[in-house]
Please model this.
Amino acid sequence: MNIGDSNISSQVLLHRHLLGLSTYSVEEIFLILETAREFREILERPIKRVPTLRGFTIVNLFFEPSTRTRISFELAAKRLSADLVNFGGSGSSLSKGETLRDTAQNIEAMKVDMAIIRHSSPGAAHFLTRCIQGSVINAGDGAHEHPTQALLDLLTISEHYDRFENLRVSIIGDIAHSRVARSNIFALTTLGAQVTLCGPQTLIPVSIEQLGVRVTHRLDEALEDCQVAMTLRIQQERFGASLVPSLREYNALYGLTSEHMEIHQDLIVLHPGPVNRGVELDDEVVEHERAVILDQVTNGVAVRMAVMYLLASSRATDRD
Ligand code: CP
Model:
């Protein structure tokens, strides 16, 4: 498959889908990041479009709210000259009781080449692979995985630190309900980073140390010698009855402040969005020069272009 006027790598992924990062190797993760860097350069040009996926049809299936991920996938597809169709739960026949399987089979009958899915059920993206022939990209399935978010986080980190081996990354907040945390834990530990999880006991799964991470309930311990603070949104919509006494108390114990930024001069701060200002991060931290939240969003388009391109190439070379 030709990339247009760029000299992007001719290597291909071994995977046909991107459902999660637990099965992706160091080489595959680095291939995606390297490819994304090349697309990032294309996105800086006056004309930000390449003909790579011309004639390719992609469907964006979002059954949960999204700002960044949905728009980013749409832009990524358009930058690659693919045809993209957006489809959401409330405006579809799902609201009339049609099942996900029947919906998927109807989409398959319309001959799409690739499907992107966000769904509240863990495993929804895996399920879709059994209904359609094309590649499937998981854009977030319940609290399971959000692999493109982790990849864009890695790309953003790599703009500040030149290695992942022994990089000290603390993931702070609602780990229990976070697909972003799970995908990042898989990818960061695969790349050799030292990952610490920090949050209240109620928001950290029991035995999560088995994934090769350290756990602390104290923010000062998590930030000591830390190079990357990956802060997470408190997802009250997922845990219903509150697992933290109050958001004010959460902020007092786990919220990042300008004082933290002053003490930890090497620290960069990530957040997948949407940010609860005054809960996970004070306003001064959101606006801080070492908060890279909008860089994450910019990198999201390049990463998603890379994933679409590489999965399409993997199909074209007929690998399994
Ligand atoms: N980071 C992220 O998944 O944001 P959205 O929910 O807005 O897509």
